[in-house]
Amino acid sequence: MVLTPDANVLADAPIVVEGALLSVSVRLVNPSNRDRPVIETTDWKDAAGQPIRTLLSAPQRLTVPRYGDAEILAVAPTPNAVQFRIRVEPDYSAIDPS
Known about the structure:
This protein has a single domain, classed as Sandwich (Immunoglobulin-like), CATH 2.60.40.3230. It is built from no helices and 9 strands. It has strands at residues 2-3, 10-11, 15-17, 23-29, 36-45, 51-52, 60-64, 69-75, 83-90. It is elongated, with a radius of gyration of 14 Å.
């Protein structure tokens, strides 16, 4: 899990559930008094470490509400996906410049 420092949110450890498809959930927590818009991207790899290209890896926008939390849920695109990397960074396009 990669949580960029400028995202200004905290993250619990990922919860991984193995089944027909690997699934992952991560809770993001915002301890501040401002909503935090972020972009999360989940990349998947096979057992050889080769990337698995999929639309499911497209960046997703979400907002972690002030003093609240938000959950990232990701399901592997194929049974071959055995590794993952979740990246969370600020969504500067949604931040009010004032």
